[in-house]
Structures are given as C-alpha cells and as structure tokens.
Write a structure and sequence with these properties.
Elements: E1 6-15, E2 21-31, E3 34-38, E4 50-53, E5 58-68, E6 71-80, E7 83-92, H1 95-116, H2 146-153, E8 164-166, E9 200-206, E10 209-214, E11 229-235, H3 239-247, E12 260-270, E13 273-280, E14 292-302, E15 308-314, E16 327-328, E17 330-344, E18 347-359, H4 362-367, H5 369-380, H6 382-391, E19 414-415, E20 421-422, H7 429-433, H8 465-478, E21 494-495, E22 504-507, E23 514-516, H9 520-523, E24 526-528, E25 535-544, H10 558-564, E26 568-576, E27 581-590, H11 598-604, H12 607-613, E28 614-622, H13 625-631, E29 636-637, H14 638-641, E30 643-648, E31 652-658, H15 663-673, E32 680-687, E33 699-706
Length: 721
C-alpha cells in the first residue's frame, strides 16, 4: 500500500437507481495517485468499493450545502475533466473536515500539475470575476460548472485553470460589495457602480460597532432607497461558528438578531444559492407603520483566506408573492463579510462586516429619513448581537455542525387577522419535503441498500454484530406508529393545530428539544430530538375533589381503545393539587415495543430504574418573563424531583406524576396556575440514555398545550375497581 496522504470517515451521498436518495458513512483514503473509499477502515489487502486515479486533470467541485435525512452536509465532488462521468462525491457534517479534504486533494493535484506543465509555464488559481457567468441561468449545482466548460474549450490557456469550482457562482443580479475593484472601474458607467463601495465615512459608534455610510450618491436608485450602510465589529469566535449562526433561520436567530421575526426557505437553487422569505421586526411606531417583509436571493462562498461571504439581493418569486398587511421592502444590496483576525490571548477573533442598502417602501420611507435610519441601525445591530451571543456561550469546544435550514413559518404562509402570518408549523426543510425530494448526486456504487449510520466522532465505526442489531432495533423504535387510525381516539381537551387557538393541544415538533446525541459520552453534544417514538392520540383534562390515580380504568379512554386495536399505550397523568384537584392526561400509542430497546427496558423495569430514567423537558414559548424563568427549559428527572407512581397493565404503562409532592414544584405551580390561561407550555417526555449503547436519546412524545381554561375540566367517572 502506498503512502497515505490523508484518511478518515466521510459521508457518501447519492441516489439509488429507483430514485430514492441515501447517505452512508465510508472510510476514505487519499494516496499520492489514488482516492478510494471502503465500508470499513481497510486492513491487509482489503479491496475498496471504488477508486479514482488522481492526476493533473482532476478537479474538486464545491457543491455547497445539501440537506439529507435530517442532516446538513458540505458536498465535494472530485472528477477528471477528461472523463467527467467518472467521479467520486463525498460530504462532511462540519465545514472544517470538508475543507481539510479539499486542501489535501488539491495539494495532490498540484503535485501532478507541476509534472504536466511545460517549461516556463505555471498553473495559477482562477479567481471568479463579476460578469464571467453573464447570461447564465440559475440551475442546480449538479450541472457542470461553467469553469469546467471553460477549461474544455481552451485547454491551452493554463492561466485560467483552477482546481476548485464553487457551485455556479453568484447570480448575476447580486452585487459582490466585498471585492475591491481596480481604479479604472471608476471610469466605467456600470449600472451597479461597484467601485463606490470603497468610499465610506464613519457615521457613528454604537454598541461597540463602527457604523459607516457610503459617501457617493447614485441617481439610478429611487429617492426612498437609503445609502448603503455597514456595521463593522470584532467577534471572539471562529469564522465557521459565526457563519453557522448567520446562515441559520431557526429559534437561535431570535437570540442575536433583533430585527428577525420569522423566515422560510422558498427555493433551494443549488448548494450555494437559495431564495428566502424574511419577515422584519421593526420597532419604529409599529402602531402606525405597517410591518415589512423581504423575498431575496442569498448566495455564499468561502474564500481561500478562510473568510466567508454571504450576499443578499431582493428577488421576485412566484411562490413568494406580496402578503396582505405587509409592505414588501426591496433589498438593493447586503450581506455579511466574515474574515479571520489574529488570535489574542489564545482566543479566536473575527471581523464581521454587515452591509445593508434597502428601500423600505411605503409612504414613510421617502419622507421620514429618521424612519429609514432607525430601521437600518436596528438591522445592523445584529453584529453586536453576534458578539454578545458568543461572549455568553460556554459550549464552544465541540465541532461545528453545519446548520439545518428550519422553517419559522409554514411553507404556505397562512394569514390571520390583520394579515399577519400564522405559524402552522416549525418543521425543518428535510421533514417537509426531504422525503419526496431526490438527491441530485450520481449513484456511484451498488451497495446503496446499507443502513444509514453515523459513527461516534471519537471512535472508529467498526461495530460488532450485536451492536448493529441494537442500532437496527433502535432505528425501528424511532419510526412513529404507521397506519394508525387516529380518528377513533378522543379526549375531552380539543386538538387544534392553529397557532393562536385557545384551550387546546397539539403535537410539538421534536426538533424544538435538544437531547443527548450518539457521541454524548465523549463530547457532551446535544442534538435536535427529531421523530417521536410514539404518537400522541388524545389528551384529557379532569378535575375532582380528590387526587385522580390510575385513570386508565376509566371506561372508553384512549388507552382502552388502543388495547382493543392491539396497540401499546404510555399514559402520563400529570396531577395538579389544590382545593380542586386537576389532572392532565396524555395518551401516547405505538404498535409494539421493540425487545431489548431502552424504552422496553423502561416499561418492564422496576420503579427504581424508572425513577432514575424518566425525564421531562419543559418550555414556555408564551408567557410572562417570571413564569418562563421559573419553569425554565432544563431537563428534569421526574422520578427524582417528584413522586411518580407506575401502573403496568397488559397493554399499557400509566405514570402518575404527583406535582404536589415537591415543595419547589408546588411553588412554581402556584405561580403558574393563576395565569394558566395566558400560557403556552410545551412538554417532552423521554427515557434518559446513560451509555453509548443507549444513545442517542429519543422522545417518547411531546405536546404543546395552549391557554388552558380551568373551567373546561370535567369530572371523570372512574370505576371503583
């Protein structure tokens, strides 16, 4: 075996011949003349699944970010420009690993190119120039890069050869304000006047940021369009960490971007380009001024110096028309430039520039300069939000996983009263359309029927037969119960998926909760919970003069209906003490218990084991500050905090949770019960996993209850038996 240049576990990502997409973990080995991958780490004379000869004609194509099976991966495609049908596509879960592979492969290609170049000629990297892809229509990134075509057309122009292609380049309508152009551009009458971006003056310093304003005015923009402004600040974090936050559109964004209200993905053009919808939260006389929203194209790239560029520009789209009650603003230019600085005192430092040139439209934009400037400063202050977010975050040692795009509004935005969008769901993109969307990558080998597995980041994923069986069993339990007729189940508390509905319940998205990941024992990493193990089919809201135990004995309850259909139920009875006792009962149903699984051991275990494992994750999305602080969102082992009584029946397990048994819980309850009609509460129940074999954790189920009315509770008819 030749000397190994680089090796490690990467993701194989492609499409089966029948059209279904898949991803696998494979062990890649890079040698001076060969790239190969194996199912396991190679030993002795093990044959690879596939190989590719690396020479001076090879290229590394950067295909950007792809969402697959609930994971965002950074995709690289290595091909020979003489035989483009023969290629290897690989991906990584974090940017650093993908960039390391890209660098190593390019180094090997360089060594072969040096041997191919005639005397006196040298290869140099090709840098993207604006206008080079003029006339190109936006297309999926699986098409051949325009730079590859350029190389084919004129192979003798070796100064234009490049090792890496980046997607399809930025859309031609987007102005790349981060590039410094030569002085002679000032003599050109280009409509974008890009050279003017170099003329700035310091407007003010605010929140530790320098705010700049563009000096040169342009006459091709309407009066209501502001001058370009940018905020410049230093954040103590790596470029990759900042890039992760900037690209996210999930709940984390509320913690650093005060102008963000909600957003969704409209269209994924390719791995570097996407069309987004973005609702703005502007606080300038909101009772008088209508809210603004944006539909824009976002393009990103990583430069050779390690910096990231994210560019924005407004774009009309057929699936993102004007929304009633909103004024559609126009983003002329904008984005982020994230550049590394020298570390100080051992801490990473990054300069973040955030530029915005926007026309807020409406009657106030052209006649009230204070309105325009106030809103711009509010949006630019997100840079200080980034700085403070990282300064107050301790969990920084784990590898950065590429963020998964999450909808903060449903794909078809429903409008409520006043024209304001209502969030029907907060499902991630891969949940809403990942199952039906096919991968754009090529099918490269015939072993595409393997299970998708992610090995522990600290260990080699060479599992024994017993471990593989355990993972298979765990995977079975992850799937929700299928083909269950939910219409036959009922409870006295109404089920309503409307965001603003009152006195009702709905299933909460598992990705709203963080649970222990596969490698938690080594890196303490938590991941979005994903799918539930069981289906929540009904909720009862009871009251009585005494505590209500063993509610499954009530005739006609959801657990008894499930038993008649051969299903297994987990019933959680949350008991609220007081002069009038209340019980909220949740019925979770599944087809069967998987023998040997953690959940099966919990169901059939003794009370000591159950008390040490039953976990609750609470959140209060809507409610007063003091209630949210009191309840918190920290996971809690219920059996150690309050008294839990477990009743195991032939087809069910009932868990009676006595909130009144804890003084602390009683104090919080006294605070909550008085304002319960104004609260929205989410609860997730799960079994805590403590060993690598039990990880990752999975939710039994999760529920969201909204604005509960005490008067709607009913007195149950419990049998004396």
């Amino acid at each position: 075996m030749s000397k190994v240049v680089y090796e490690g576990w990467m993701v194989r990502y492609g499409r089966r011949k029948i059209g279904r997409s898949y991803i696998h973990m494979r062990y890649f080995v890079l040698e001076p003349r060969l790239l190969a991958y194996y199912k396991k780490k190679p030993q002795d004379n093990q044959l690879p699944i596939k190989t590719m000869v690396i020479d001076g004609n090879c290229r590394v194509e950067d295909r950007g970010l792809k969402t697959q099976h609930g994971h965002m991966v950074y995709v690289l495609s290595i091909y020979n420009k003489k035989e483009k049908h023969h290629r290897i596509t690989m991906a990584a879960f974090n940017i650093q690993e993908a960039l390391m592979w890209k660098e190593k492969i390019e180094c090997v290609i360089d060594q072969h190119q040096d041997s191919l170049v005639p005397s006196g000629q040298q290869y140099v990297s090709f840098e993207y120039k604006p206008g080079m892809d003029a006339g190109r229509t936006a297309s999926s990134s699986d098409h051949e890069s325009p730079f590859s075509a350029l190389e084919d057309e004129d192979d003798s122009r070796r100064d234009l050869l490049r090792r890496t292609t980046i997607g399809n380049g930025p859309p031609e309508s987007i102005l790349d304000w981060t590039k410094e152009f030569d002085a002679e551009l000032s003599n050109q009458s280009s409509s974008n006047q890009a050279f003017s971006r170099k003329h700035w003056r310091l407007l003010q310093c605010q929140n530790g940021l320098r705010i700049f304003e563009e000096l040169l005015e342009v006459d091709y923009l309407p009066r209501s369009c502001s001058r370009a402004m940018k905020a410049v600040g230093v954040v103590e974090a790596t470029c990759e960490e900042i890039f992760e936050l900037v690209m996210s559109m999930d709940g984390t964004r509320y913690e650093w971007d005060c102008s963000f209200q909600y957003g969704r993905l409209v269209e994924e053009v390719d791995g570097h380009t996407a069309i987004l919808y973005h609702g703005l939260l502007l606080d300038w006389f909101p009772m008088v001024v209508w809210p603004r929203d944006l539909c824009y194209v976002r393009y990103w790239r990583r430069n050779d110096d390690g910096s990231y560029v994210v560019l924005f520009r407004s774009r009309e789209h057929e699936n993102c028309g004007p929304q009633p009650g909103f004024v559609r603003a126009h983003l002329e230019s904008g984005g982020f430039n994230i550049a590394p600085l020298k570390p100080r005192n051992g801490r990473p430092r990054t300069q973040v520039q955030h530029l915005i040139q926007i026309d807020l439209k409406g009657w106030g934009a052209g006649y009230l300069p204070a309105f325009q400037q106030h809103c711009l400063l509010q949006m630019l202050n997100s840079v200080s939000g980034l700085r403070e977010w990282f300064s107050q975050t301790d969990d920084r040692g784990q590898p950065i996983r590429i963020p998964v795009m999450v909808n903060m509004a449903s794909s078809s935005l429903a409008l409520g009263k006043g024209g304001k969008p209502q969030h029907k769901s907060s499902l991630s993109i891969d949940q809403t359309n990942g199952a039906s969307r096919n991968s754009v990558l090529m099918d490269e080998d015939s072993d595409d029927d393997d299970e998708f597995q992610i090995p522990d980041s600290e260990q080699e994923p060479e599992t024994s037969k017993q471990e593989q069986e355990q993972e298979t069993d765990a995977k079975k339990t992850e799937e929700p119960a299928l083909n269950i007729d939910l219409s036959c189940f009922s409870g006295n508390l109404r089920h309503d998926d409307n965001e603003n509905a009152r006195n009702c319940w709905r299933i909460s998205d598992g990705n709203n909760f963080k649970v222990r990941g596969k490698s938690f024992c080594s890196d303490k990493r938590k991941i979005p919970a994903g799918k539930h193990l069981m289906d929540l089919v009904a909720v009862d809201w009871f009251k009585d003069t005494k505590r209500m135990d063993h509610v499954v004995r009530r005739k006609g309850c959801a657990a008894q209906v499930a038993a008649e259909k051969g299903l297994f139920s987990t019933v959680v009875n949350v008991q609220v003490p007081g002069s009038t006792h209340y019980s909220m009962v949740f019925y979770f149903v599944t087809k069967e218990l998987v023998p040997g699984s953690l959940f099966q051991r919990f169901v059939d275990g003794d009370d000591e084991f159950r008390n040490s494992r039953l976990k609750l994750i609470p959140t209060v999305p809507k409610g007063s500050w003091i209630v949210r602080q009191s309840v918190g969102s920290t996971p809690c082992l219920l059996g150690k905090a309050v008294d839990c009584n477990y009743i195991r029946g032939p087809t069910y397990l009932e868990i009676d949770v006595d909130i009144g048994s804890s003084t602390v819980a009683n104090g919080v309850l006294g605070l909550v019960i008085g304002v319960i009609t104004s609260l929205v509460v989410e609860m997730a129940f799960l079994v805590q996993a403590n060993t690598p074999e039990e990880l990752p954790e999975r939710l039994i189920g999760a529920v969201r209850v909204s604005h509960i009315e005490l008067s709607s509770a009913i007195v149950p008819n419990l049998d004396s038996d």
